[in-house]
Design goal:
single chain, about 300 residues, alpha/beta, Rossmann fold, DNA polymerase, domain 1, 2 domains, 13 helices, 7 strands, about 40% helix, globular
């Protein structure tokens, strides 16, 4: 079962209230939406590009009539669907969901035998199979390095090319074995050698960083004054993008200090679309990590629309 990460911290920060309108940009199994809708007589507009969640959303519409609506689309397209309406919060839970990983046929996990797919939107044409089998060596190495932070990316790409000359690489297990041969044993690391390569290909296939950058740019036009931006990420690439966006768009990076006001903002009368009282990421508790090991890398960052 999918467990929504940092959900208690999100509720504490959001403080759902009657009559408020929220966007759940990554609906998934509906964990965030359900918790918010149960807290107050509020409304949620949810988005998700995964076709498999439509049936879950349909049940939500029946359970929360007139308070829940769903649009089958990438969260990067939110602005195109709201006709200029402003919302009280935008909530995003980035990356692949437990539900997607656990569906072996989706090809997200090297631990489950499946065709190389990795699409979050099943209507999309580009799959992991095309990336692995038809991308030229240098670009493939760059994808693995830039999106997976894999230092042995060139060795992996070279071995992939050598193997696909013999036969197409069709399954998760085939790709995993090639990567393991290229990487070798990483000392006493508990992380599987294929982890970074699979992450990199998945991120590229789904344009996850491009999607995130677009919604961040649009967020100032989606939120009302005092609207809350809440983003949960699971790896450093996403978290860095979110952190840098908040710093740049809240004036946080221009903060100076004095003996009287150690966190005063020195911004030369500039106005910023967001404010941020605390840039430091919010992390899951040890108790939550024990209950859900996938929460261990989660980071939540928040900002308020000015």
């Amino acid at each position: 079962m999918h467990k929504s990460v940092l959900i208690d911290q999100i509720i504490d920060y959001l403080q759902p209230a009657d009559g408020k309108n929220y966007i759940d940009g990554t609906f998934g199994a509906g964990g965030y939406s359900r918790k918010i809708l149960e807290q107050a007589n509020c409304n949620i507009l949810a988005f998700d590009r995964d076709q498999n969640v439509i049936s879950i959303a349909d049940n939500f519409k029946k359970e929360f009539p007139n308070r829940f609506n769903f649009i089958s689309s990438e969260f990067s397209n939110v602005k195109d669907h709201i006709n200029g309406e402003k919302f009280d919060a935008l909530i995003l839970d980035l990356g692949v969901s437990s539900m997607q990983i656990d569906q072996a046929e989706r090809g997200f996990s090297f631990q489950k035998e499946a065709k190389l797919d990795m699409r979050m939107n099943q209507n999309q044409k580009l799959t992991a199979f095309e990336i692995v089998n038809f991308t030229e060596e240098k670009k493939l190495a760059d994808i693995i390095y830039n999106y997976g932070d894999e230092r042995k990316s060139r060795r992996i790409a070279k071995l992939i090319i050598e193997n696909r000359k013999i036969k197409k690489i069709e399954t998760t297990s085939e790709l995993s074995e090639i990567v393991k041969k290229a990487v070798g044993q990483r000392g006493f690391s508990k992380i599987d050698p294929a982890t970074k390569t699979f992450q990199a290909i998945r991120i590229f296939v789904n344009d996850e960083l491009g999607q995130l950058e677009k919604i961040l740019v649009d967020s100032a036009n989606i939120l009302k004054k005092d609207g809350k931006l809440i983003i949960v990420s699971f790896h450093s690439l996403e978290d860095r993008i979110v952190k840098n966006f908040i710093k740049k768009n809240s004036g946080y990076e221009n903060r100076g200090s004095s003996r009287y006001s150690p966190y005063s903002v020195i911004n030369n009368q500039e106005t910023y679309p967001f404010s941020c009282k605390k840039l430091k990421a919010i992390k899951p508790t040890e108790e939550e990590i024990k209950e859900n090991i996938r929460a261990r890398s989660a980071r939540m960052r928040i900002a308020i629309k000015n």
